[in-house]
Amino acid sequence: MEIKRLDWPLNLSIVFLMAAGLLSLTSTAPHLAGPQLLWCLLGFGIIISVANFDWRPFAARPWFSRGIYVIAIVFLALTYFIAPTIRGVRAWIVIGPFQFQMSELAKFALILLYSSFFAKGHTGIAHFKNLFLSFAYLVIPLFFVVIQPDMGTALILFGIWFCYLLVCGIKWRHLLAAAVIFSAIFVFMWNGFLENYQKDRISALFHPERDPLGVNYSVIQSKIAIGSAGFFGKGFKQGTQSQLGFLPEAQTDFIFSSFTEEWGLLGALAVLAVFFTMIFRIIKIGIFADNNFSRFICLGASLLFLLHFVLNVGSCLGLLPVIGVSFPFLSYGGSNLLINSFLVGMVQSIALHRRFQ
């Protein structure tokens, strides 16, 4: 194992985010801190283990990425039929004391598949066949995620596909056509698929003062938590909104608000600085990678983390609807953390096995 040659600024950024999340959990939900610590240790072990495996030979084997994709689709389908309903969503397969969200595997599978697909076909992405095929790869997991229903994951899957197209140089006329098509799809989903509570969350974004004890309650409490923090925060276990139970989902969806309330603007800026350091290191590794597959893996990892970040922090600030998206490596939960760790391990493997090293 060549641990010294890993990108340690990237590793330390992740350790910092994990530690900040554990600190917040210890304050607001001590009973979750122990399990999360185990997930963090397992996740970091995955990063080190996966990093020492050379993934480059698999770039030339489409069966590998397609196989992972098929496995993810099968598990997503099984989830719909056998998973219990938890918080109104059938998204977790429960095995004893463990719950695994199979849509997290779908995100990883889609990044792997698109990295292989666009590595060979990105120069011809404007061809209708390539556009249609890339969209077809998206539609299947998107369908199973929508019927769970999990709009947060659906947006992330769509965002991954769309951002890959942008990077590959899709033409503006195709973007315009796509905008028209997806506007029509949104109208169709609004009238046929979205639950009333999901519609209310979207509508609440444009009416933040409406129903302060209902649909806007969580966002209002999040704003109070962040706005009352000051520069240094209220201190460990001193956050009124999170400690007194006013802030819902303070361990997952609103952990950034909870952390900011106790550690202030200084703590929030530290988390943001470390997060973007992580993104910068991943992009830098991708820039210096020696093949397109590796570059697209780094692109996919950075896109996934950025999409999660934008949707999570945006909802905490009331800039986006609350759709239940976690903050990478900060929020409580094992499924997201382990998949993210696997992706970072692949990125570290790319850094470790570059030919010029």
Instruction: Find the structural class using helix and strand composition.
Output: mainly alpha
- Helical fraction equals 55-70%
Q: What is the typical, i.e. mean, pLDDT?
A: 86
SSE string = HHHEEHHHHHHHHHH
Largest sheet: 2 strands, antiparallel
| Biggest sheet: strand arrangement | 1-2
SS summary, helix count: 13
Number of E-state strands: 2
Distance between the termini: 15 Å
**Uncertain runs:** none
Shape designation: globular
Radius of gyration: 20 Å
Portion of residues in beta strands equals: under 5%
Write up this protein.
By secondary structure, the protein is mostly helical. Helix content is 68%, strand content 2%. It is built from 13 helices and two strands. It has helices at 8-28, 30-51, 62-82, 102-121, 128-146, 151-167, 172-192, 196-204, 217-227, 240-243, 255-287, 292-316, 334-352; strands at residues 92-95, 98-101. It has a two-stranded antiparallel ribbon with strand order 1-2. β1 (92-95) and β2 (98-101) form a beta hairpin. The longest helix is centred in the C-terminal third of the chain and has 33 residues, at 255-287. The protein starts with 7 loop residues before the first helix and ends in a 5-residue tail after the last helix.
